[in-house]
Design goal:
Low-confidence stretches: none
Shape: globular
Order of helices and strands: HEEEHEHEHEHEHEHHEHHEH
Bound molecules: 6-hydroxymethylpterin-diphosphate
Helix content: 40-55%
Number of helices: 11
Structural class: alpha/beta
Largest sheet: 8 strands, parallel
CATH topology: TIM Barrel
Number of strands: 10
Number of domains: 1
Strand content: 15-25%
Oligomer: single chain
């Protein structure tokens, strides 16, 4: 049956210390959801909505209740052209939100490129490091290793401020895959307990580059580490569907993410958790082969 293997495939993410409940791993079948909580005034699709910490916490808990396995908290927009945020300001944004979500029993990932911010968030109870910088800084690897936190390793060509100016690859699939495998090996060698690999949709990539990575996602999935895909509301969807407003890109996002699910992605990073949970429930029932 089409996609059956992907819907039933078991994924494991190992931690260096126990999670609430006592086990030092997360284990799930088919694609899990990572809910996005941007505590920012300027994120590309929900800018300002969750800049208020109380709102960010309430929405993170709601995403958890709607079925997000992980809630990803970030305090700096990395949209193309975004300015960098000073570390102390980024800390001020994320710390109270991470602390409250962790206290509520949510598995929190910290979405940051800055060691100071990651260190503070781990101190407040974040359990996963999500570094769009690909864990290239030795300090990032040390922090994740010391905290027993698995890491999302993402590929980005260049820096957010300029990455969409002229992205260029000889073979985008080979280059991104090679980078991720090398970065994963370095992280595991440094003592990071586990890694998820993320091709970084929209991070220094043209629409054609993103399409190539998604069409050949099975090649990345064929490796031995779980793969995360985050295309939620991104410009590629706007381009393919002719929709300039990110808030109106949910249908295209679902189509793209179901494609990634069928290719074997282990986790999808999404703004709309309930809608993805519904789409995945129907998709898994169709391809999974069990009774409804
Ligand atoms: N995309 C964004 C931010 N963090 N992390 C991972 N691992 N993968 C991604 O694709 C990814 C990410 C950008 O999306 P968003 O957080 O919605 O917007 P902004 O950066 O403007 O806050």
């Amino acid at each position: 049956m089409i996609g059956a293997g992907a819907a039933q495939r078991e994924h494991v993410l190992r931690f260096g210390s126990p999670l609430p409940g006592g086990r030092a791993e997360l284990r799930w079948r088919g694609p899990a959801l990572m809910g996005i909580v941007n505590v920012t005034p300027d994120s590309f699709s929900d800018g300002g909505l969750r800049f208020d910490p109380a709102r960010a916490v309430a929405d993170g808990i709601r995403m958890h209740e709607q079925g997000a396995l992980v809630v990803d908290v970030g305090g700096e927009s990395t949209r193309p052209g975004a300015p960098t945020v000073p570390a102390d300001e980024e800390r001020r944004r994320v710390e109270p939100v991470v602390a409250a979500l962790a206290e509520a029993g949510v598995v929190v990932s910290i979405d940051s490129r800055k060691p100071e911010v990651v260190e503070a968030a781990l101190g407040e109870g974040a359990r996963i490091v999500n570094d769009v910088g690909g864990l290239q800084l030795p300090r990032m690897r040390q922090l994740a290793a010391a905290a027993g936190a698995p890491a999302v390793i993402m590929h980005m060509q260049g820096e957010p401020a300029t990455m969409q100016t002229a992205p260029s690859y000889a073979d985008v699939v080979a280059e991104v895959g090679g980078f991720l495998r090398g970065a994963a090996a370095r992280a595991l060698e440094a003592g990071v307990p586990d890694v998820l690999l993320d091709p970084g949709i929209g991070f220094g990539k043209s629409v054609a580059h993103n399409l190539a990575l998604l069409r050949r996602l099975d090649e990345l999935v064929a490796g031995d580490r779980p793969v995360l895909v985050g295309a939620s509301r991104k410009a590629t969807i706007g381009h393919l569907a002719g929709e300039p407003d990110p808030a109106r890109r949910l249908p295209g996002t679902l189509a793209l993410h179901l494609h990634a699910a069928a290719a074997g992605a282990a986790m999808l990073r999404v703004h709309d958790v309930a809608e993805h949970a519904q789409a995945l429930a129907v998709w898994s029932a169709l391809v999974g082969g069990g009774d409804a």
